[in-house]
């Protein structure tokens, strides 16, 4: 709790919580962001939904279709919003690229599209590479 209080004081945040449970039990909190390692996102998202919170969950939500269906059914059943934080879907770059590809006269027939996205992997113990938490090149940065 001390670390949370110190962080809140440093950044001018009005409340601090010592645990996720404390945060989820606060009725004054309407929505939460779940940025946890991939393997922890589903259980904590479900807990948040079950306490009546709207949820923005980091991508990828889960590699299990059954978990995804369970979470969205839970949100719908409670009248809550659950959204996956997948930045590319709504990024203005993607909208502009789609417009350029669709609009006649701007370019010829698209035959190949290639892209890459990387980050340095020289941090020992980087949780994004921990396969036991559903991390790794495909399930984290790869999506």
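-> sequence recovered:
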């Amino acid at each position: 709790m001390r670390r949370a209080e110190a962080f809140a004081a440093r950044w001018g945040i009005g409340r601090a919580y010592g645990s996720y449970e404390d945060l989820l039990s606060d009725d004054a909190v309407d929505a939460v962001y779940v940025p946890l390692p991939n393997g922890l996102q589903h259980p904590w998202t479900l807990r948040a939904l079950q306490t009546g919170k709207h949820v923005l969950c980091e991508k990828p939500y889960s590699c299990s279709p059954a978990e995804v269906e369970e979470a969205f059914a839970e949100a719908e059943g409670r009248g809550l919003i659950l959204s996956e934080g997948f930045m590319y879907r709504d990024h203005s770059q993607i909208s502009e690229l789609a417009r350029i590809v669709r609009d006649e006269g701007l370019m010829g027939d698209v035959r190949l599209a290639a892209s890459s996205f990387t980050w340095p992997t020289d941090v020992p113990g980087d949780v994004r590479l921990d396969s036991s938490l559903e991390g790794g090149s495909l399930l984290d940065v790869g999506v």
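The CA atoms of residues 40 and 100 lie 39 Å apart.
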